[in-house]
């Protein structure tokens, strides 16, 4: 069973001479029967003895503990002697060394009768089977540890990209996936399946993309697999994969710089919501008219820099960490943000509380969140080659940015879609936003039931083509539209 031709020949010979015990022993090598404890128990019954399997430290791994000469057991375990026999006090004892990749064990067999040829052969061959089982188990365990370590490394790279630390992400990735993050831009895809099938789906993603994409099991959503790839062919690879699996969907972002991985992730999640209702089960984030694109770019960047100026006194690393956490925290819950970043939710809340304090605002106010969200995403655009803020535009304030004819026209057109609803959904939505997106508080103001508020808000989502109940970019755009038409009061910031 182990070793060279002599061992194999001996095993075959003994199997022919003793078909019953040999066949029973070989059964323990089948996939369904690979259990060292069962083999030890079987040996005890086969030779009518007490049997124990100990590790090098003397701890019992299987069988019944036996009193042994510790010096003799140590000599066997260390390999100084391969086996030993001892007779006395009416007992007959055999010790056999069982080697394996990370050490050795001692198989001890004690019986009242002397060991004849049959019993000795059974003990010898059983030790060989145990050695095979221990080696297989350790090899399998090493493979599991390697796969887990690789998955943890992929997640660490994604978390570095989420906080815009592209330099560190590239350094970490270079060792195992050379060239993976050499490109300046990439797309992010989010696949959704039954959580029980996610591991298989992730493995297929890795196989399909041929290690030319970063495949991560989402730490926040049990059924999600995140794929970041700089290759255009990845979209087709994932689309063909989804076609083969029922109840599997994929949403993709538009091309973004690596520093905007968090933005791309949010786009992919938004597209995934659309994919669930598409026949082909796939969707790509649809670029639409965003309010910031209707504003004077130089004035907008100058305004954003002024809003975030209280954070400029912080060390660069601390400032980047706070802003990256806040950017994700405005898109997702504190729990989901913590899982994506690999920190505790208390850390997420502490970082966002610090940003609140330095900016002199309250994130419970949806309009505050919307304005900070606008400033943060404007600042990200500075990394995409749009140039620095224009000091000549420093006189611009948020009111002036939102009062431009293009922004005002966009806001009126967007909110005007709700005017035809006889339930006055527009008023409900405005009140709900003003109440911090809290249905109970909005219901008290309107004198209706909280469920009515939720139904009105939910009915506004398909009309506005935006998700409102899940806080994020869609909700903040609607809040900015209300600010632009003067239906909500503009928040004040310490930097303005």
From TrEMBL:
Query: Does Oxidoreductase appear among the keywords?
Result: no
Example GO molecular function: DNA binding
**InterPro entries in alphabetical order:** CdaR-like_regulators (IPR051448), PucR_C-HTH_dom (IPR025736), PucR_C-HTH_sf (IPR042070)
- What keywords are assigned to this protein? DNA-binding
Q: Which residues form the PucR C-terminal helix-turn-helix domain?
A: 334-377, 426-481
Q: Which domain of life is it from?
A: Bacteria
- Record Pfam families: HTH_30
DNA-binding found in the keyword field: yes
Q: What is this protein called?
A: DNA-binding protein
- Annotated organism of origin: Streptomyces pseudogriseolus (Streptomyces gancidicus)
